[in-house]
């Protein structure tokens, strides 16, 4: 704001704050004077000048500094000159508020268009994640039997010449398979995808909630990656992580 019109800031804030909940807004107000405006005149701020002279004289006296202050030095004093004009404050405030309201409406319209594009992009990405996680789910169905075969063969190869308890082996294999199961993580991941899509349809500020859901998606896929090292699933996990990172970048632009 121009210094002389700083009293308008409160009225401007009232127009902006209710419309913008997240992010940072830079707003500049420029007030141009018309050439035909004859009410504006330039004056010296006598109080500012008196304060400067008083302080300088006191410094000269305290430290015994010789010299005189000339008009050249006086003209270098910051904020010495001020514009005096007869302003209809009520009319000016109304004009500024109207201009700010128009700017806010244009901003909101632009953000609405951008938001629609972001929502469409995010829906496509969520659909990709849904398809990829279904592929992981399909492959995961065969993991228990695969683990059983690998573990049983490994134990039999190691203990080929030694008798071992088949029942105990079956129990250990079952324990390992159960601990390596990713069924719960897959179920939660799918649930988070549904939450993400439903949140996109909610009016109001949703950016922080979407980012939280995105973090939950990332947590689940990291757990799935830690539980299985099968190459057939690992390549899909890489795709999911890449898509979640793209979603993270997009969500930062949503209020």
Mind explaining what this structure looks like?
This protein is mainly alpha-helical and about 260 residues long. It folds into 2 domains: about 40-85, no CATH class; about 110-250. The protein has helices at about 10-15, 45-65, 70-75, 90-140, 145-160, 165-180, 185-200, 205-225, 230-250; strands at about 40-45, 80-85. A two-stranded antiparallel ribbon has the order 1-2. α4 packs antiparallel against α9. It is elongated, with a radius of gyration of 35 Å.
Outline of the structure:
This protein is mostly helical and 255 residues long. The protein contains nine helices and two strands; from the N terminus they run αβααβαααααα. α4 (89-140) runs antiparallel to α7, α5 crosses α6 and α8 runs antiparallel to α9 (231-251).
Structural class: mainly alpha
Main sheet summary: 2 strands, antiparallel
Shape: elongated
Give helix and strand order, one letter per element, not per position: HEHHEHHHHHH
Question: Which band does the percent of strand residues land in?
Answer: under 5%
Give the uncertain stretches in residue-range form: none
Give the termini distance in whole angstroms. Answer: 26 Å
**What value does the Rg take, in angstroms?**
35 Å
Can you count the beta strands? Answer: 2
Q: Portion of residues in helices?
A: 55-70%
Counted up, domains total: 2
- Spatially, the strands of the biggest sheet line up as 1-2
Total helical segments: 9
